[in-house]
Amino acid sequence: MNSWIKKDLKYIWHPYTQMKDCEKLPPILIERAKGVKLYDNKDNFYYDTISSWWCNVHGHNHPKIKEAIKKQLNSLEHVLFAGFTHKSAILLSERLISISPKNLNKIFFSDNGSTAVETALKISFQYWQNIGKKNKTKFISLDYGYHGDTIGAMSVSGIDLFNEVFKPLFFTSFKIPSPYCYRCPVGKERDYCSFDCIEPLEVILKKKNNEIAGMILEPLVMAAGGMIVYPKEYLKRAAELTKRYNVHLILDEVATGFGRTGKMFACNHVNIKPDFMCLSKGITSGYLPLGVTLTTDSIYNAFYDDYEKGKTFYHGHTYTANPLSCSCALASLELFEREKTLDKLRNLIPLFYKGLEKFRDLAIVGDVRYLGLLGAMELVKNKETKETFSLKERIGLEIYKYGLKKKLILRPLGNVIYLFPPLSIKKRELEYILDSTYYVIKDICRNR
Predict the structure, then answer these.
(1) Which of 231, 335, 343, 377 sits at 20 to 30 Å (Cα–Cα) from 364?
(2) Alpha carbons 226 and 380: distance in angstroms, whole number
(3) Residue 447 and residue 426: Cα distance in Å, rounded?
(4) What are the residue ranges of helices labelled H in 257-410?
C-alpha cells in the first residue's frame, strides 16, 4: 500500500464512508486533474462522471478560473464581512441578481449548500416573527428531499439511512410524499396521471397555513434522494399553492443550479417567483467553497429597522463572501458567456438522452430518468415488482469497483447509478462514458 494512503487511513475520517471498507478498497490518491479527468499517483485517469460531488462545471484546472483566483490573491485573501465589503462580493451579487428570478434582489452569503439552506430557513422563520405572525414556525418538505447535513437542513430532509440516527435532534416539520413517478405515492402511471400527488400539499396548506413559515424543495430534481426527476407541473402547482396560502417558497438549487438541467437554474424551466433561492456547488465551478441565499426586497425590509427594535438577523459565517471564492464565482459566470456553455449543452443533451434510453433494456435497470446533463438508472431485482436490492447485496459498490477498471467514477446513491459530468465535457468523452457505463452494468447483470 502506498505510504500516503497508509497515512490517510491512519489520520483521516472520510465523509459518507464506512472506514472499514477502506481495508479492501482504500481511497484513490489523486495528484492532478484536467478537464473531466482525474489522475492518480500512478498516472491512471478516471472520468469525473459526478463532477466531484456535483460542483465542477467548467472542468478541472481551467486557466481562466485559476487566473482569477491568483489575481485576487495578490490584493486581498479575506476580510470580515460585518461592517466591511469588497468589490468581488459586490460584482458577484450584481451578476447573480441579474440572472436570477426577477423578484430576488437581495443576497446573503455563506459557505456551502447546507449553510445556504440554514440561512433561508432562519430568515423565513424570523420574517414571520418580525411582522407579528408568531405561529408560523414550521416548514413543509418532501420525503425524498435532501437539503444538507446540518441540523436544520436535515430537519427538512427526508429520513433515511443517511440521517435516521440523528432524528431525535431534528425540529418538527411537515413531510409530504414526493412526486416520485417511478414509485408513484398514489399508484398512478406517469402518462395517465393528473398530478394527484400534489393533493397532500394542498391539504396541509389549507389546514395548517397559519403554522407554516415555508416550503422547501429541490426544483425538478431530488438529487441525493436518488436523482428523482419530477414533472414541471408539480413545481408550478406547488408555487401557486404556497403563494395562495401565504407560505414562503424556498428553492434549493444547490445541486440543480448553474446549467445542470440545461438552463442556468432549474426554476427557469417554469415561470415562478420563489421567495428564496439557495445556491452553492457549481457557483464557483467547484474550485472554492461558497454559498448564497437570495431573497426578496419585501422579506429584507421586514428586518430593516432601528437596532433596538430587535429585528436584526443575527447570523453569519467567518468566511462569508470570501474574496477568493467570490472572484472564482465571477470567473465561472464569465465562462458561461465566453464559452457559450448553455448553447453547447443543447447539442449534447439529445445525445445524452439517447444514450441513457438504451439502459432500459438491461435486466436490473428498472427506471431511467434525466434532465439536462444529469441522468440516473435505478437498479432493481425484479422489473415487474420493482423490488430493490438489499443493503447487504451492495450492488452499487459492485458497479463502482467495476467502473474504476473502465476509468469511470460511478459512485452510487443506494440502488441508483447516476451520471452528472462537468458541462465542459466533449462529445467523444460523453459517448465513452455512456458506452462504458452500459457495458459495466450489462456485465454485472450477466455475472449475477
Answers:
(1) 231
(2) 13
(3) 32
(4) 297-301, 323-338, 341-357, 395-405
Instruction: Give the distance, in angstroms, between the CA of residue 365 and the centroid of all CA atoms in the same chain.
Output: 23
Give Cα 350 distance to the centre of its chain: 23
Q: Which DSSP category does 408 fall into?
A: B
The CATH number assigned to the domain holding 37 equals 3.90.1150.10
User: Residue with C-alpha cell 459498490?
Assistant: 397
Question: Binning pLDDT at 50, 70 and 90, where does residue 194 land?
Answer: confident
At residue 407, φ and ψ (nearest 5 deg) are: 70, 30
Distance CA 225, CA 158 (A): 8
Question: Has residue 447 got a pLDDT over 80?
Answer: no
Handedness of CA 184, 188, 194, 199 (dihedral sign): negative
CA nearest to 116, candidates 283, 238, 242: 283
Q: Which three cell numbers stand for residue 268?
A: 427557469
Rounded to 5°, the CA angle 118-49-336 comes to 70
Stated pTM of the model:
0.96
Q: What local confidence, expressed as pLDDT, does residue 292 receive?
A: 98
- What is the sign of the dihedral through the CA atoms of 209, 211, 213 and 214? negative
Same domain, 45 and 183: no
112 and 52 belong to one structural domain: no
Task: Look over the chain and give the mean of its residue pLDDT values, rounded to a whole number.
Answer: 96
Q: What is the mean pLDDT of residues 415-431?
A: 98
Beta carbons within 10 angstroms of residue 95's beta carbon: 14
Lowest-pLDDT range, 21-25, 298-302, 416-420?
A: 21-25
Total domain count, the chain? 2
Length of the chain: 448
Do 233 and 353 fall within a single domain?
no
Cα 240 → chain centroid: 23
How far lies 322's CA from each of 106, 310, 361, 388, in Å? 18, 27, 48, 44
Q: Alpha-carbon distance 223 to 235, whole Å?
A: 15
Given a contact cutoff of 8 angstroms between Cβ atoms, the answer to whether 123 and 116 are in contact is: no
The set of catalytic residues is 16, 146, 252, 281
d(CA 351, CA 374): 12
- Give the span between the Cα atoms of 157 and 161, in whole angstroms: 12
Q: Which three cell numbers stand for residue 41?
A: 499517483
